[in-house]
Amino acid sequence: MAEAGDPVVYEVVSSRVPETSGELPQSVTTIHPGTIGGEFHFTRGHMHTRARGEVYLGLTGTGGLLTFDGRRAVWVAMAPGTIGYIPPGWAHRSVNTGDEPYRFLAVYPGDAGHDHAWVAENGMGHRVMRGASGEPELAPFPRPAAGSR
What we know:
Blueprint: E1 10-14, E2 26-31, E3 35-36, E4 39-40, E5 54-60, E6 63-68, E7 73-78, E8 83-86, E9 91-96, E10 102-107, H1 116-122, E11 126-130, E12 136-140
Antiparallel strand pairs: 1-2, 2-10, 3-4, 5-8, 5-10, 6-7, 6-9, 11-12
């Protein structure tokens, strides 16, 4: 939760569809542009508590989808009209790599669940940094030390 004076880097608007088996909830996330220490603004990231896939559709701006299975990270560049797929069992986070708000639609099975603690405990394998040319570059990032949450 943001505290007074903390910058808000992303916002999520969710549908009123129940997060239960058989349903397909949706949300639209907007990540504002910027970097902190050279790292592009990103969402908190999560792993699904049940092995379920998820689909993202780029709406505005440019960004990407960083996925991590605990061993390897995969980057999918996103722009308006690009569809990104998150396989079951992969943690995922979205990143704004542009100079305007990056907005995407997410659709997922209602019984998928969201485990943000998994990312806090295991990391995402890489950070998405602004390279010398301004383009995104993946930089290896070690797993958090045990008990560092």
